[in-house]
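$ run holo --ligand "flavin mononucleotide" --emit tokens
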Amino acid sequence: MSHFEPFDFKQSEELLKTSEHLGYKLPFSKDISSLFERTDINGTEVPNRFAVHPMEGCDAYQNGAPSKWTHRRYQRYAEGGSGLIWFEATAVTNESRSNPRQLSINNENMRFFKALVNEVRAAASNRFGRSHRVYCVLQLTHSGRYSQSVLGSKPKVAQFNPFLDGNPEEIQIIRDEELDHLQDDFLEAARLAFHSGFDAVDIKCCHGYLINELLGAFNRKNSQYGGSFENRSRFMTEVFQKVDANTQALDLCSRISVFDGIPYPYGFGFAKKTSLDIDMTEITVFLRRLMILGGSLFNISAGNPHAKPHISRPYDRAFPGTGIPEEHPLEGVIRLIKTASHLQSQFPEVPFVGTGYSWLRQFFPYVGAAVIQQKKAAFIGLGRSSLAYPDAPLDLMEKGHLDKNKVCITCSRCSELMKKRVKTGCVMQDPFVYGAEYKKSKNE
Ligand SMILES: Cc1cc2nc3c(=O)[nH]c(=O)nc-3n(C[C@H](O)[C@H](O)[C@H](O)COP(=O)(O)O)c2cc1C
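-- output --
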């Protein structure tokens, strides 16, 4: 096990050396042209290999529609040059929202999502020309145990989990009939996303939210959604079938936590016997099934950020109350790169988006370019970096390198804002909006 050390690399050689000490030859290429190669997703052209990861902004209206702050964030992404924008977690029902400021799509507010997609595409093509058409994915979610309480109700969970639940009285296990019904809510939300102009919907299966939790619901008793792999993967496979049958022109995809960091039998993706070794057997079968059912793009993530944030997003500064992670952040980055790479090599015909690049700061383009060249992923996904430095792709296009004064420093302040359920963005690089919000939140 490595020790925690914050980012302290002046030269790329130092980064590569540390990676070698950690037992991995980090992909690295000074030639970054591969990041600008066009590609396609299920026949739709994408102008380059930069993907903005889904990032909740906690700035929607009460009715779930995007606000002017949501528009601002996405406009910045579009004008920054990323070819793929993966829109943030959007609840399929009001009750499944993580907070009252999470996006939620419904019949009444669909036209506002349509306006947002149109604006994003227009902003990108005004800046980069008509051939630069941004591929837009909408992430659909049920927040499960992390849903807001509605009228005093308890959050719905897939199973009782002693690693996450203090008191079984405080949670409510979602019933099979509710899950059957929820499948139709996902279908309806997908239909609305299609009519809003999105290219694809993501049935969100990561980070401990409900659908992801079902994958690890070994202890869910007397249920067609728990126990066996067949049952645990039922919700996803049935939703994929339904969406594919009803909205064929819409691409289907998923963001998946390959493992959630919680040992068997309460979590997904760890070997049953040794408990803390990642086991990709089930995820490989799962992905193959989803591809047969129409899955055409996958975004690979890991962990449950509510339980162990350093697995999902390696950082330098811990979120207050989280403590110093038990490993070197680069080890977390390497794990994410290796995981996506392993799966991409199993399924070379389907594009995968990789995660974990923001911690690499000004060196991420060189690692990302090599990852693309070596076909370890088809897209380089950027989360916190997109908040801090949305025009990183543009700077790379025009100058050939990043400005190291503009990079994300993984300070976790965006996560703090999100946790407080206030307008979320980069406190350091977008101070007039989010620095002010952070100050306000500290004084409350
Ligand atoms: C403020 C914040 C909001 C996030 N919202 C989402 C989300 O809506 N959906 C999702 O799948 N991941 C979400 N994530 C995780 C990111 O998409 C990404 O996986 C993570 O930050 C690691 O990538 P990075 O190292 O490039 O930041 C969020 C992360 C942060 C910090």
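-- notes --
The first strand starts at residue 39 and ends at 41.
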